[in-house]
Design brief:
The chain is 75% helix and 0% strand. It is an all-alpha fold. The protein is globular and about 75 Å long. The model has no long low-confidence stretch (mean pLDDT 87).
């Protein structure tokens, strides 16, 4: 009988589907899907060496998807999650733009060029993710200053 008095926490699928309805959830899901598409295109080409960027960014986006959907960011306050996310998306954006431009300029394989085009789209999505993180960083930037007056000891 005591179990019925406490509200039940949402299931894992409920948390994930609830997070997918948010703007951040859609952007992270798009990053994971685009990274998977870029990975498939790079692996299907003759030179699959560029697939490391897609794998790393897909894994990092997946980690942040899990952290935000299960609200681990509110439980583990040791890590500053908005700054960690900002660093992740800036690095991802730069790496996708650099590798995609190299791949498109080299352009001797159709799958490699397709991966480069999808990589440019992923770079734009990562840049948009950085843009939507900025309000969260501004919100956490307002700290109360520490007292600077000396305290008297009795």
């Amino acid at each position: 009988m005591a179990d019925q008095d406490q509200p039940s926490s949402p299931s894992a699928t409920g948390r994930i589907s609830g997070f997918l309805r948010t703007r951040k959830g859609m952007v992270l899901a798009g990053e994971i899907i685009l990274s998977l598409i870029v990975f498939i295109c790079y692996v299907a080409s003759r030179s699959g060496g560029y697939s490391v960027v897609a794998i790393c960014e897909m894994i990092f986006a997946g980690i942040f998807f899990v952290v935000y959907s299960f609200e681990f960011d509110k439980q583990f306050r040791v890590i500053h999650w908005p700054w960690s996310d900002m660093i992740r998306v800036i690095i991802g954006c730069l790496l996708y733009f650099i590798t995609s431009l190299i791949v498109i300029i080299r352009g001797y394989d159709g799958a490699l060029i397709a991966g480069g085009v999808f990589g440019l789209i992923a770079g734009i999505l990562f840049a948009y993710d950085a843009y939507i993180i900025i309000p969260a960083l501004k919100k956490t930037a307002h700290h109360t200053p520490a007292p600077t007056e000396p305290t008297e000891y009795a």
